Amino acid sequence: MIRAWSATDVRAAEEPLLAAGVPLMERAAFALATTVLADLRARRRSVRGAHVVVLAGAGNNGGDALHAGAHLARRGLAVVAVLAAERVHDGGLAALRAAGGRTVDVASDAGRVRSVVHDVAGADVVLDGLVGIGACGPLRGTGGDVVRALVADGLPGVPGDATGGPADHGPVTGRPWVVAVDVPSGIGVDDGTVPGPVLRADRTVTFGAAKPGLLLPPAAHLVGDISVVDIGLHLAGAPAVRRLAAEDVAAAWPVPGPADHKYTRGVVGVVAGTATYPGAAVLATTAAARTGAGMVRYRGSDVVARAVLAARPEVVTAPGRVQSWVVGPGVPPAADDADDGQTARGRAGLAAARGELAGLSRGPVPAVLDAGGLGLVEERCPPWFVLTPHAGELRTVLRRHGVDVHRADVEAEPLRWTRRAHELTGATVLLKGAVTVVVGPGVVYAQADAPAWLGTAGAGDVLAGILGAMLAGRAAAVVADPALAAEVAAAAALVHGLAAERATPGGPVTALDVADAVPGTVADLLTLRAAP
Ligand SMILES: NC(=O)C1=CN([C@@H]2O[C@H](COP(=O)(O)OP(=O)(O)OC[C@H]3O[C@@H](n4cnc5c(N)ncnc54)[C@H](O)[C@@H]3O)[C@@H](O)[C@H]2O)[C@@H](O)CC1
Ligand SMILES: [K+]
């Protein structure tokens, strides 16, 4: 698991060590230089003579970068430090100069930004040390100008002058390897927002602990590989954001034993699909069955049930015991009701879903509320109800609770609005996206496991089925521990992402391929379990 702590928590952990004279910056800079050397060795035969540009801002983040630059200069690399503030870290600057590093002072002469763009174009590595956890708001001043100019010149990143989010320019051949010092300068360290210009990193070397902004979208798309350097901080208390690793999901997976049967493994009830969208029911039931549910019970119209049974003969359609519900995939939201016959059948699906929900909300049964099921969330929900909206649906949920936001607001601040929806509804909320954000009582998860190919029709129905089966397998524990549904939801996002990774040949993947890849994915995960 990657655990991320807020800037305030990291500072609090640094304080006693700094007071005791522990050389934190030296540790950070040495680890940074070592990582850069390892990356360079992996990319070119010799590190000697490699060109490094250090972007240095006013604070200790710039100090880290300058000290690392000094280490690299002593190893024979050609280092140029771009001084983007009138005053930069004294010790770092002196060390860099003593090691033979060159400096370009852009802060006192904005005309030199062009020469920086030229230096960067010829560099092997760029160290982004403009701002770290001391940043406040969008990257301003000379540092902002430099980043804007570099992005305009073709380096991946966000120019910060448009309304759009992070642009992925894909690999630009011959461009330098960008290493962010602690965080990519200018991201919202605690909330993952991207309020202004940011250079996209290939790697972020972060000190003491990961920061929430490295895990949360949209900034998570700008961090590259994350290396957490242990500089000896003791971070107590709960992390602000967590990201599950495959090992965590493997360790918690309920592997059946000889005494288990379909009811101990969990029965998933699925209310999904309409005559208009029967495929969603097939996908959700298939995914639930393939995730290892003890039984899948389909509750819906006969016409959809026939399609489900044709694809999955093991599904049961009779009423009976259920340990988790999946309500809503392929069921149109109420607002889509119209007068044609097709949506009349949609309304019948919605009525069925509403009937099931009314029953289940009275008992302690975990549920996944997806698509049309989200429209049924009117009262407060228990945390073992997991809402699974995408950004547009989250906006609708919020509006129904009197919060006027636009989809673009949700995309710009996913954590803020997912948390708000959790506060308003009481439910655990999983916001679907390239990075999945899950908020439950006192916990936040951010999962980034899926290839971009997964963004395809029906993928959400498969996620709902996987999550339904995972909730059913641990239903009693999920009801007993208010934070557990969020962990299970994050784990479902991980399984969904890894199944897509397994199913894609490196190209397009269909939702059914993803569902079919779940058993192999789970088997792979289980090989990661520590031997008893
Ligand atoms: N305290 C320490 O000894 C340690 C600090 N560390 C490093 O120090 C960093 C934090 O250092 P600081 O507290 O000095 O803060 P930063 O270096 O992150 O930035 C603060 C400076 O940036 C300016 N600034 C703030 N917001 C800005 C914006 N939006 N646009 C442009 N400039 C902005 C401020 O005026 C200030 O001069 C960490 O991220 C980490 O890299 C590490 O070396 C570990 C130990
Ligand atoms: K930085």
Automatic annotation (TrEMBL):
Q: Where do the YjeF N-terminal domain residues begin and end?
A: 5-239
Keyword vocabulary terms for this entry: ATP-binding, Isomerase, Lyase, Metal-binding, Multifunctional enzyme, NAD, NADP, Nucleotide-binding, Potassium
Domain YjeF C-terminal, chain residue ranges per copy: 245-525
State what protein this is by name.
Bifunctional NAD(P)H-hydrate repair enzyme
| InterPro entries in UniProt | Carbohydrate_kinase_pred_CS, CARKD, Nnr, Ribokinase-like, YjeF_N_dom, YjeF_N_dom_sf
What binding details are noted for the cofactor?
A: Binds 1 potassium ion per subunit.
What is the catalytic activity of this protein? (6R)-NADHX = (6S)-NADHX; (6S)-NADPHX + ADP = AMP + phosphate + NADPH + H(+); (6S)-NADHX + ADP = AMP + phosphate + NADH + H(+); (6R)-NADPHX = (6S)-NADPHX
| HAMAP family named in the record | NADHX_dehydratase, NADHX_epimerase
Q: Which cofactor does it need?
A: Mg(2+); K(+)
Annotated AMP binding sites: 432-436, 460
| Subunit structure, as described in the record | Homotetramer.
The family assignment reads: In the N-terminal section; belongs to the NnrE/AIBP family.
What top-level branch of life does the organism fall under?
Answer: Bacteria
Record-annotated residues binding (6S)-NADPHX?
Answer: 60-64, 132-138, 182, 280, 330, 390, 461
Write down the species.
Isoptericola dokdonensis DS-3
- According to its UniProt record, the EC number is 4.2.1.136, 5.1.99.6
| SUPFAM superfamilies, per the entry | Ribokinase-like (SSF53613), YjeF N-terminal domain-like (SSF64153)
Specify the taxonomic lineage. Answer: Bacteria, Bacillati, Actinomycetota, Actinomycetes, Micrococcales
Which biological process, per GO, is one annotated for this protein? nicotinamide nucleotide metabolic process
Q: Name one GO molecular function term.
A: ADP-dependent NAD(P)H-hydrate dehydratase activity
